[in-house]
Amino acid sequence: MEKKNGVLTEEQMIKRASEGMFVRDLEKDRVYCPAGEVLRRKSVRKNGDVRYANKMACKNCDYKAMCTRSPWKEVDFPDKVTEARNLNWLKAKEDGAFSI
User: Fold this and answer.
1) Three-state SS for 50?
2) CA-derived radius of gyration, the chain
3) What tens digit of pLDDT does each residue of 50-97 get?
4) By the 8 A CB rule, do 67 and 89 touch?
5) CA distance linking residue 53 with residue 37, whole number of Å
6) 2 in a domain, yes or no?
7) Which domain holds residue 18?
8) What would the pLDDT profile of 18-61 be if each residue is shown by its tens digit?
9) Is residue 5 part of a domain?
10) Looking at the 3D structure of the chain, how many domains does it have?
11) Alpha helix (H) residue ranges in 1-100
């Protein structure tokens, strides 16, 4: 995947997220989830990790059971980390449980 100035474009981030990743856009301070939704900054934890969430998107998400066990999408990112694998999502996709 070709990066512009070392950073993925928004289109590339969305594509990468669809492959089962939570992808953080540091410039816009948001995260793209595997279902194609945008998670916004919710809080900063005591350890410095930034937590992103989107309660409404998860509440209405058809893939919620395969994505996360929490009642809403939440993902924490340490400083400067831009990707986090969603292991539940990847396993469900491998098992053929769904396709987007």
Assistant:
1) strand
2) 13
3) 999 998 888 888 877 777 666 557 888 999 899 988 777 767 666 666
4) yes
5) 10
6) no
7) 10-94
8) 888 899 999 999 999 988 899 999 999 999 999 999 988 888 88
9) no
10) 1
11) 10-18, 55-59, 64-67, 87-94
